[in-house]
Arsenite methyltransferase (Synaphobranchus kaupii), 430 residues
Amino acid sequence: MIDSSFDVSYGRTVCFGVNYILNIFEGFLTELATWRKSVAKSGHFSVMAECKKGTHSDCSKECASHGPKIHDDVKDYYGKRVKKSSDLKSNACVAPAKPIPAFIRKALTDVHPDVTDKYYGCGLVVPECLEGRRVLDLGCGSGRDVYMLSTLVGEKGHITGVDMTEEQLEVARKYIEHHTQKCGFSKPNVDFIQGYIEGLEEAGLGENSYDIIISNCVVNLSPDKTRVLREAFRVLKDGGELYFSDIYSSGQLPREITSHKVLWGECFGGALCWEDLVRLAEEVGFSSPRLVTASTVTVDNEELESLLGDYKFVSATYRLFKIPKNTPKKSCLLTYDGNITGFEKALEFDCHYTFKVNDVVEVDGEVASILKTSRFAEEFTFQPDSQTSSGSCCAPAKAVPVNPFELVQQMKSGGTTSATEGCCGARKSC
């Protein structure tokens, strides 16, 4: 027979032990939460600092499988819920990180206020050397960027805007004649097509049709970013460029963020990790992304901030080029001739290369191939290959930073945003 007093004593001992362990574990969780908050505030939370390699394809497939629903949610958000910029619930649509040149400010002031009121971009998508070019705007919305650039491409150029939201396109189409007269053109040099940026072929856009593609805070809204890049690559001419601003995250986003309608509509839920962009560009066939500029995105909405947790976001502008196949990638010496409108003294190509007029600069092989095969070919004088030996007076080209979070930190600390200097002074002295 078992002693009942022993059962009671044993039971009490077990309960005391379990409670003791639970109290220790609870204390550990409290300390862990406190540590996470303190590290997140310091900006050194390493888990969030880089993307998990090899996971973007699975994420893309999952998002793509919900494509129709995401499209409907985004159309509802920007067609019915958000009527003007002030209706947005966060600061994702931030001002450009750099001062806007005077000729671009003038082009912006010529855009009708009704169009500007419905602008939801996160950067400034004004690539250089636009005169006479054919340009495509992915996710053009109410048409602000289309109309701004229409004055810069001139009457001989043309811009097509593509968007899936009918309410936005109604605004854009309403002011075609207004802007044609404002520019003094004899006929419109813009048109607007309703369609999906993942389905440019279905929208009737053929291969090798455009010199430049722009996009302003729209790629993150797509459920299938791989297809967006593939379609962009298809419709670009050889030497063509995809120049776009978008929101990027500090790490792979969990399902509770990517499935949240408001976070997706506010450009956070669908944000790529910047490393995924690098991998996707390579898979599709583009050149390595050239980082132009970046700025921190603050949410300033307590409810959304609590959902986003420790994840950080930036607005970044990249340029990707469709370099013709079998193009040699050899470093070379070159000089910028200064003939691009608005950039007569210097051309800031990206955060690494700024070309000053008549300064001789050595560029890496990929940049050399970009400049020689794109619309920029006529804007530079290229030195003979025999002058690019390691014994030249130019310092070897350095590695190009593509991490927008690093660039933001460099800018905050007072670091230069361009590492290029003329290596030999004026062209005649080299």
Notes: The chain is about 40% helix and 15% strand.
